[in-house]
Amino acid sequence: MFAEFITILDLVGVAVFAATGGLVASRKEMDLIGFGMMATFTGIGGGTLRDIILDRPVFWINDQRYLLVCLAIAVLLFFFASRVQKRYVMLIWADAAGLAAFAVMGAEIARESGVSPLVAIILGMATATFGGLARDLVAGEIPLLLKQEVYATAALLSAATYIAAITYLDTPRLNAACLAIAIGFGLRAGAITFGWSLPRYRQRAGRIYK
Question: Which tens digit of pLDDT belongs to each residue from 33-43?
Answer without folding.
Answer: 999 999 998 99
